[in-house]
Design goal:
By secondary structure, the protein is of the alpha/beta class. It has a single domain, classed as Rossmann fold, CATH 3.40.50.1820. Helix content is 47%, strand content 18%. It is globular.
Length: 260
């Protein structure tokens, strides 16, 4: 299914019935990263998984996280989702924060999944721009091969080549301009830390024990700042908890949703 915003087609899946749950994917993936969670949650919830512009079946090129949050709002308005649960993984969490800055009153509950509220430090921003330069000069393949290993725990990389291959296969590589646009949007995102103390909805925070991209320390800071939030740290996982430890990850989501 698709809607059109500002002349750009935004694609989304809408499956199941019950309390709506909107799941926002990470970089450089698409809504297809949620297939396992859709299968587990759709029997009891209505699960909506948009593709950010430039990824999956959506058109256009991403430019800012605020733009992507606007696309999410367009889908929410089109489907008349109120109230609903908002969940964001990694970049999806960065977009969720920008959505909450404008529309927190519409969100019934929140799931922050391997993400963080802080803006990029200068060295992290520099690494993202180096990635942009590499994609422009070499093409996406080498960057994505390295990125796939970066987002997995060292144990996974060493002993589970099938998971490494799965993550690499899930990555979007057809449109280099979407990858560079996404990296720039992430690098230039604002600090969302001031927003945390104002969030009053039920909140689940999930992070992999070995997550280097959005580490447990960042998750703990969000947990401390969001009153009444629940923190789940999943062992045996790096950044890709939903792929490295899918049963534990999905169980955490399902149990949280049963309480809201």
């Amino acid at each position: 299914m698709k809607i059109v915003r500002d002349g750009v087609e935004i694609s989304y899946k809408d499956e199941g019935e019950g309390l709506p749950v909107v799941l926002l994917h990470g970089f450089p993936f698409s809504g297809r990263m949620w297939n396992r969670q859709i299968a587990a949650l759709a029997p009891s919830h209505r699960v909506i998984t948009p593709d950010f512009r430039g990824f999956g079946d959506s058109g256009g090129v991403p430019s800012t996280v605020e733009q992507l949050a606007g696309d999410v709002e367009a889908v929410v308005e089109h489907l008349e989702l109120e109230p609903f649960v908002l969940g964001g993984f990694s970049m999806g969490g960065y977009v969720a924060f920008r959505y909450l800055a404008e529309h927190a009153d519409r969100v019934h509950a929140l799931m922050l999944l391997d993400t963080r509220a802080e803006a990029d430090a200068p060295e992290a921003k520099q690494r993202r721009y180096a990635g942009i330069d590499r994609i422009k000069s070499e093409g996406p393949d080498g960057f994505l091969n390295d990125f796939a290993k970066l987002v997995l725990s060292p144990k996974t990389v060493e002993s589970r080549p099938d998971v490494v291959a799965q993550v690499r296969q899930m990555m979007e590589e057809e449109r280099a301009e979407s990858l560079t646009g996404g990296l720039k949007a992430i690098a230039e995102r604002p600090d969302s830390t001031p927003l945390l103390g104002r969030l009053k909805m039920r909140t689940l925070i999930v992070v992999g024990e070995d997550d280097k991209a959005t580490p447990p320390d960042s998750a703990k800071k969000m947990h401390e700042a969001i009153s009444g939030s629940q923190l789940v740290i999943i062992p045996g996982a790096g950044h890709m908890t939903g792929i490295e430890q899918p049963e534990r990850f999905t169980k955490a989501l399902r149990e949280f949703l049963e309480t809201v």
